[in-house]
Amino acid sequence: MSPFDSNDLSEAEDSPGAPEYIPGQGTETAEIPIRIENGEIQLDEGKLDPEDSGSGSASLPDLRDGATGTLRVQASSLKDDQDRHRFTSEHLEIIVPRSNLIWLKIGTNRSAERPEFAKMYLRKSQLPVPKRGWRLIPVALQDHLWLRHRGAKKPVVEGGNCALPKFLREKSGEMPEVLESPHQAYHTLSQIFETHRRTHGGSVYKKGYVWNPDVKDWIGLEDFRTRTVTGSVWGGPGSNNERKWLRPWWYSGKEGTYDTIDAQWLGEENQMWAAEAYPLDPLDEERPRTQAEAAEALEEKGYRPSIQVRKDDFSRAAPPEARNWNGLVPWEP
């Protein structure tokens, strides 16, 4: 079965020519001020517009069955310390190491306004085709890509300095060598290839993919955000995850050694990772290191993220070589 049979990958929600959002036409969400009285949720009339306050509607509006939303309160309003930790804690997780490519779904229908170098790139490059009129264009990560978990909120992608394909950088003559994030990379690629669009924003979660050579299929960045967290995405102690090829590596020039971080999710109650690496001594505290703390501790010892790992350099097994689609390698997509 072709990896492009995935409905998620093939679906083009914002196809060329689709109408764009027009500001000032109302919003998709309603904000209802509330307060808690005797353990019950009530309408907070004091925060309503003065023209609406005292209109005789002192109760919450009727809502349709199945309606969902978010109750936003001060952290100090939560009585139980465990609840406060559960809904307010934040932790960082490495989801795509520096040694992998992120592929961004870009509309590539014929366009007379598209720069000639962009047309040449499409003609000469062997790119995945998720759907007619679309291509996946590689972006090389120069730093690990992190996912910030924020209480009950949806996680957000952070970091991930990256570079567009060398051909595009050289031929454009004005493209920066390093972009700050996949978000910026998507915006830049859209400006180059999707010249029909008036704006070039888009959700990198729905447009970004990583190739998993173990199962020969694509992982969407949105999949990382919506998965049930039971362990590190690259495996580790206590994890049944099959994506162990995502494991990031650090290299110490001083020691001449490589090492990596093992991570185990401690569960919803604790809301954090138990992260460890061989060069790091255990913490004196009862609380284990988070992934971010372990990465920082490795860097303090002179370790840096690495993409070059040879089997004869250390005793652990080296990561597989086929880490990117069709043999494409980082840095020279």
Give a short overview.
This protein is an alpha+beta fold and 333 residues long. It has helices at 7-10, 81-88, 116-124, 166-172, 182-193, 204-207, 221-226, 291-300; strands at residues 34-37, 40-43, 90-96, 101-107, 134-141, 145-150, 156-159, 162-163, 208-212, 217-220, 249-252, 257-260, 262-265, 273-276, 303-306. The protein has a 5-stranded antiparallel β-sheet. The protein has a 3-stranded antiparallel β-sheet with strand order 3-6-7, with no helix packed on it.
List the helices and strands and how they pair.
Layout: H1 7-10, E1 34-37, E2 40-43, H2 81-88, E3 90-96, E4 101-107, H3 116-124, E5 134-141, E6 145-150, E7 156-159, E8 162-163, H4 166-172, H5 182-193, H6 204-207, E9 208-212, E10 217-220, H7 221-226, E11 249-252, E12 257-260, E13 262-265, E14 273-276, H8 291-300, E15 303-306
Antiparallel strand pairs: 1-2, 3-6, 4-5, 4-9, 5-8, 6-7, 9-10, 11-12, 11-15, 13-14
Low-confidence stretches: 11-23, 313-317
Trace the largest sheet across and list its strands: 8-5-4-9-10
Give the SSE order as H and E letters. Answer: HEEHEEHEEEEHHHEEHEEEEHE
Proportion of β residues? 15-25%
Structure description:
The chain is flat, with a radius of gyration of 24 Å. The protein contains eight helices and 15 strands. The strands form five sheets. Strands 8-5-4-9-10 form a five-stranded antiparallel beta sheet. It has a three-stranded antiparallel beta sheet with strand order 3-6-7, with no helix packed on it. The two termini are 25 Å apart. It has 333 residues and is an alpha+beta fold. Among the domains are: 95-224, no CATH class; 230-319, no CATH class. It has helices at residues 7-10, 81-88, 116-124, 166-172, 182-193, 204-207, 221-226, 291-300; strands at residues 34-37, 40-43, 90-96, 101-107, 134-141, 145-150, 156-159, 162-163, 208-212, 217-220, 249-252, 257-260, 262-265, 273-276, 303-306.
